[in-house]
Amino acid sequence: MRFEGKVAVITGGAQGMGRTFGEALVREGALVGILDIDPVAGAEAAAALREIGGQAHFATCDVADENSVDLAVADVVSALGGVDFLVNCAAKHLTYYNRPPTVLPRDDWRVLLEVNVIGIVNCAAACRPSMQSRGGGVIINLSSIASFALNGAYGISKLAVRGLTVALAQEFAIDSVRVCGIAPGLVDTPSAISDIPADYANMLIHERQLVKRLGRVQDLVGALFFLCSEDAAFVTGETLIVGGGYPLRA
Ligand SMILES: NC(=O)c1ccc[n+]([C@@H]2O[C@H](COP(=O)([O-])OP(=O)(O)OC[C@H]3O[C@@H](n4cnc5c(N)ncnc54)[C@H](O)[C@@H]3O)[C@@H](O)[C@H]2O)c1
User: Fold this and answer.
1) Looking at domain 7-242, which of 1.20.1050.10, 3.20.20.70, 3.40.50.720, 3.30.1330.10 is its CATH number?
2) Are 57 and 79 in contact (CB under 8 A)?
3) Would you say the CB of residue 87 lies under 6 angstroms from ligand 1?
4) Which amino acid residue places its CA nearest to atom 7 of ligand 1?
5) Where are the domains of the chain?
6) What is the separation of C-alpha 180 from the centre of its chain, rounded to a whole number of angstroms?
7) In the sheet that 31-36 helps form, which strands lie side by side, from edge to edge?
8) Which pTM was predicted?
9) Residue 14 CB–ligand 1 contact under 6 Å
10) Quick check: bond before 247 cis, omega within 30?
11) How far is the CA of 21 from the centre of ligand 1 (A)?
């Protein structure tokens, strides 16, 4: 029970990584607040956490909408008592959004940046007062190895997430809030698998990665636990790549 009594807010917690993270944190004693734009899947995910004995609360919100985030975080704080961890998973990430910069329509660019980047700003700002009152906290931002390849708009949004991780770490240090990132490689969430062409996935695995298999959400749980825990008390502003060895950096 590594996180007994800690409250974790997970954006995009209705499915994929966020949903698995919620389950993993509940099994370690955390209380979980799910924020998601999908009311049906979000309520179902919170119910599933309660079924395994966890304390969980769901609040619908669009992370790109500041007011909606403020209301949802207030709802979670009143239901679960506060916020210790914020895990920012919610994002636009289909290959559609990784078109070259001048090919992606401008309106889609704006939506991408509003959700993937401003969404994190909104959630961090909304959770900060509760973290302050509890003497600190941890924010984990999901970036991507696409932020190193930089072949399209999505990768640029995830490079901004890495930059934001550094800037928020500096801004929130005064409150003993650490801010870190995880940059996953290709991971077998249903949305990614149904979206990424199989030949591209195979090329990535066999020609770029050193570990020759698809990533699993479970591969990310250890990174999440480490970064949230006191073991990482001296780590902030860093983004940890969990991508089977791609890309290697000196
Ligand atoms: N799956 C991968 O291979 C992969 C690789 C690298 C990085 N990532 C990143 O990891 C994170 C999670 O990926 P995933 O595959 O689990 O995603 P997913 O599509 O399975 O889940 C995303 C969740 O976010 C919610 N969401 C989307 N827009 C929202 C909004 N505006 N407000 C609130 N909720 C919203 C969705 O309803 C969904 O429940 C994302 O940030 C993604 O960019 C994923």
Assistant:
1) 3.40.50.720
2) yes
3) no
4) 144
5) 7-242
6) 10
7) 56-60, 31-36, 7-11, 85-88, 137-142, 177-184, 239-242
8) 0.98
9) yes
10) yes
11) 12
Asked if residues 161 and 175 have their Cβ atoms less than 8 Å apart, the reply is no
pLDDT tens for the chain, residues 1 to 250 = 899 999 999 999 999 999 999 999 999 999 999 999 999 999 999 999 999 999 999 999 999 999 999 999 999 999 999 999 999 999 999 899 999 999 999 999 999 999 999 999 999 999 999 999 999 999 999 999 999 999 899 999 999 999 999 999 999 999 999 999 999 999 999 999 999 999 999 999 999 999 999 999 999 999 999 999 999 999 999 999 999 999 988 8
| Cα–Cα distance for residue pair 46/175, rounded to 1 Å | 29
Residue identified by tokens 């999908």 is 38
The residue assigned the tokens 């502003």 is 237
112 in ligand 1 pocket by Cβ < 6 Å? no
Query: How far is it, in rounded angstroms, from Cα 95 to Cα 86?
Result: 26
